[in-house]
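User: Before I run my own analysis I want an independent prediction to cross-check against. Here's the chain; please return only the structure tokens and, at the end, one sentence I can use as a sanity check.
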Amino acid sequence: MKQIAFSCVGVKFVKIILFILLIIIMGCEAHPPQQPIIVPEPQPIIVPEPLDPPIEKFNPDTVSKLIQEKITKSSGHNRFMHRSELIHGISLLPSFYQSRKFSAAWMETDGEFLLAEDLLEEIKDCKKHALDPENYHYSSIETLLKTIRDHRNAPNLIYYDTAADLDILLTEAFFLFSSHLLFGIVNPETLHIKGEAYGPDIDLVSILNIALKYQIIRKTLKDLSPQHQEYLNLQLALKKYQEMASKNDPYRVPVGETLRYGASHERVRMLRNRLIFLGDLKATETSDPTFFDSDLEKAVKSFQFRHGLVVDGVAGRQTIAAMNVSSRTRLSQIELNMERCRWLPRKLGTKYILVNIADFKLSVVEHGQSIIEMRVVVGKPYRKTPVFSEKMLFLAINPFWNVPIKLAIRDLAPRICSDPGYLAAKQIKVYKNWQRDSPEIDPALISWCTLTTESYFPYKLQQASCPDNPLGKIKFIFPNKYAVYLHDTPDKSLFDKNLRDLSSGCIRVEKPFELAKLLLGNPAKWNQESIKAILASKKPHTIRLPEHIPVLLLYWTVAVDQDGKVHFKRDPYNRDKAVLEGLEEEFKFRKRPFGKQRPAL
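Assistant: Structure tokens:
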């Protein structure tokens, strides 16, 4: 029984053990042993490159429409702002773009502005004309051009608007620059200068259209600038004094005692250095720079001659004051005289007579070179010789003198009042009026003592050819509304004066017969003997010139001689200040020159 019981227990035990083992086996199958995790190496993320965005095709018509809108909006205004730039040529812009049906002028069909670079180069170079590039929108054009080129591959509304603005600004810059080259910045009529300034009647719209069509922007602007020798010489002087002005004017001469040959003083060293800087003295070794030697005396005379001073080689108060004038001031003088040059006709002819009123000098210029020069006497400051140009037609030997009405009332009437025999003594006759066949009348019929400038005075006073005749022996006529002419004078001592603004407006010449022989030509017919024979007759004799010679009466306070030396003249009529102030004011655009339109001489 015990064995049977043990066997039963054993069997149960075995079953239990087997059951446990089965559970363990099943658990192992449900949860197999974990394998070690292998982390893969990170792989680069490959992002596909985006496709190029489609380029919008450039449409020039969009620019044209914008130009039309902008021009139409500005029409009727005297001035307007464009991209913060003041537009001066608004009077020309509408007609210019209308002539093109508002198509862009400077922009190519692909949106490029190739000719803009040519205009920018000329504007950048305008300093040689004493002009400022910023007056012609230089920086703004550069900025807009860069913007256009940086965004050319992505045209949008902003791009088109910028292109339209750039085109208009380029056109405005061309018109303004060419206007200043042709006619000058300052309108002389606003300066109340007695006289006239001339310029050709030029169609700037046509000029620009032609320049764009044939791609000759630079050549066109060069051709519009003055080409006569006087202007070219001033350009050289401008460059020289621009360099001098950049050096801050060293070696000023202190005020002190008059310095002359033989003086020894520390101020002599300063005088020497100043003249070296100004170009009148060569920089050479000297044993004693404080001694006033002969070379320094010659240099002082050179300076005095160039500045219209008494040439005595003595450095007195007036000479030292002129030496100490700053290079910046001298540069301004050159600039304002270049402006005066721009008031001249472009074609002066191969041969002409030039009278510089401020220099008291006459020159006959042929092929750009002065072939004869002489001193002249010009009008007093209160009887100024006018600035104008006409053609000389003839000359008169043994001329009579028709006394100007104002001069007859102001000067002669008081003398006649105090001396009734004055007219007879001076061989002056009185005629009823100024008609050719007017009868002579008795001077006693006129109340000379009560005449005033307001008096009615129809009479003509005419002086016969005689030693007292202020016209001397010869008179040169170039008919003009001012009744101004060149003539001889019996008072030759006037030419020895340093300042010769002494006449009543007409111009007395130092060498009238040399001038006559030059103008008449044909020495076989008009020689010294033939002219003397006419003089001996004491009868008026008129000779027509074989060619009509242009006569230019100018007022220049700076001139350059044939040796390249710059001469600074006094300003006897005090006109420089007004021109300089005009240049510094806000300028105005003029599509035509001031004053009466006349063909160039």
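Sanity check: Confidence is low (pLDDT under 50) at residues 1-9, 50-55, 592-601.
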